[in-house]
Design brief:
By secondary structure, the chain is an all-alpha fold. It contains seven helices and no strands. It has a domain of 56 residues.
Length: 212
C-alpha cells in the first residue's frame, strides 16, 4: 500500500486542510488570540521580573533570611523534641531491662542492709551506755556503803572504852600542863616579852629612828 500512488481524493483533502489552516491563521479571532497570548506572556515576564526585584531587595532578603532562620529554629526544635523523646524511650527501656531491675534491687538491698547495720550499731551503743550507767550506779552504791561503814567505824571507835580513856587522858594531860609551874613560867616569859616589845616601840629613840 505504501507503493501505491496517492489518490486524488487524498490530495484534495490535504489541500483543503492546508487552506483551512491558512484561513484560520488569517482570521481576526486567531490574530486576537495570538496577540492576547503575547500580551499574557509579557505580563508573566513582568511578574517574574517584579518577583526577582522583590527577592533582590534588602527587605525581602531580610524577610527570606528571617523565614529561613525561623524554619531552621522550628526544625531544630523538632529535632530536639525527637531527641528528648528518644532519650525518654531509651530511659524507659533501660528501666525495664532485667539488668537495671536487678541493679536497682541490689542497690535497695544494699541500702536496707546499711540501715540495719546502723541500727545494730546504735543498739550496741545504747546497750553499752546502759551497762556503763549500771556500773556507775553500782559504784555509787558501793561508795555509799563504804562511807556508811566508815561512819559506823568512827562511831564505834569513839564509843570504845580505850578511845574514851585516851581522850580523857589527853584532856587531863593538857590541863595539867597548863597548870604546871613550868607552863606558867613560860607564859609569864611570853607576857614579859610582849610587854618589852611594846615598850620598845613606844620609846623616844625608836620614834626618832622611825622619823629618820
Amino acid at each position: 500500500s505504501r507503493c501505491r500512488e496517492p489518490s486524488p481524493d487524498v490530495e484534495n483533502q490535504v489541500q483543503m486542510s492546508r487552506t483551512k489552516v491558512r484561513c484560520r491563521e488569517q482570521s481576526p479571532d486567531v490574530e486576537n488570540k495570538v496577540e492576547m497570548s503575547r500580551t499574557k506572556s509579557g505580563c508573566r515576564e513582568q511578574s517574574r521580573t517584579k518577583s526577582r526585584c522583590r527577592e533582590q531587595s534588602p527587605d525581602v532578603e531580610n524577610k527570606v533570611q528571617m523565614s529561613r532562620t525561623k524554619s531552621n529554629k522550628v526544625q531544630m526544635s523538632r529535632t530536639k523534641s525527637r531527641c528528648r523523646e528518644q532519650s525518654r524511650t531509651k530511659s524507659r527501656c533501660r528501666e525495664q531491662s532485667p539488668d537495671v531491675e536487678n541493679k536497682v534491687q541490689c542497690q535497695e538491698q544494699s541500702r536496707t542492709k546499711s540501715r540495719c547495720q546502723e541500727q545494730s550499731r546504735t543498739k550496741s551503743r545504747c546497750q553499752e551506755q546502759s551497762r556503763t550507767k549500771s556500773r556507775c550506779r553500782e559504784q555509787s552504791r558501793t561508795k555509799s556503803r563504804c562511807r556508811e561503814q566508815s561512819r559506823t567505824k568512827s562511831r564505834c571507835r569513839e564509843q570504845s572504852p580505850d578511845v574514851k580513856n585516851k581522850v580523857q587522858m589527853s584532856r587531863t594531860k593538857s590541863r595539867c600542863r597548863e597548870q604546871s609551874p613550868v607552863s606558867r613560867t613560860k607564859s609569864n616569859k611570853v607576857q614579859m616579852s610582849r610587854t618589852k616589845s611594846r615598850c620598845r616601840e613606844q620609846s623616844p629613840d625608836v620614834e626618832n629612828k622611825s622619823a629618820a
